[in-house]
Amino acid sequence: MDENQYVVFYLDNEEYAIDIVKIHEINRLKEITITRVPRVPHFIEGIINLRGEVVPIINLRKKFGIDPKNISKESRIVIVKIFNKVIGLLVDSVSHVLTFETVEIAPPPEEIKISCDYITGLGKKGKRMIFLLDIEKILHMEEQQELQQMGA
Q1: Measured on CA atoms in the order 104, 83, 48, 68, is the torsion positive or negative?
Q2: Which one of 8, 12, 18, 58 is most buried, by most CB atoms within 10 A?
Q3: Where are the domains of the chain?
Q4: What is the tens place of the pLDDT at every residue in 16-43?
Q5: Which CATH number fits domain 3-149: 3.40.50.2000, 3.20.20.70, 2.40.50.180, 3.40.80.10?
Q6: What pTM does this model have?
C-alpha cells in the first residue's frame, strides 16, 4: 500500500497540504519578528533570523491572490527547503498531519493545472478536498532569483 504523509494548513478556510518530508519545522510567531524588506515582490512578508540564518518569509495568502489577513496567534511559519534555500511560508494556521493513500489522491482538473501548476493533486478524505502543493513550483524562476539576491 503506497501512502504519503502531508502537513495540512489553512488559508482562508481552505485546506492545503505539503509533503511532510519537505518540511523542516513549524514556528509560532510569538517569539519571531518579521523584518520588512524594501522593494521585494508583494508576497514576500520580510525576513526572519532563524538561529542565525536569514530566512525570507513568503505570505502564501498574497502569493495565491487571497485577501490579506492580519497575523494572529494561530498564524504559523512553515519552514521548508526549496532548491537548497531555507524559506518560510506564512499560513493562517497548521492543523495536523494526514496520511493519503495513492487512491485518495486525484489529479487536479485541467483548468487548475494550467493556472496553478503548483497544485499537484487533490487529497480526498470523506467530503474534504485538500489541495496538495508542490513547494518547488510555488516560486517561478525569476522569483527564485530575487530570493537569492536577498541572500536566502
Answers
A1: negative
A2: 58
A3: 3-149
A4: 999 999 999 999 988 789 999 998 888 9
A5: 2.40.50.180
A6: 0.88
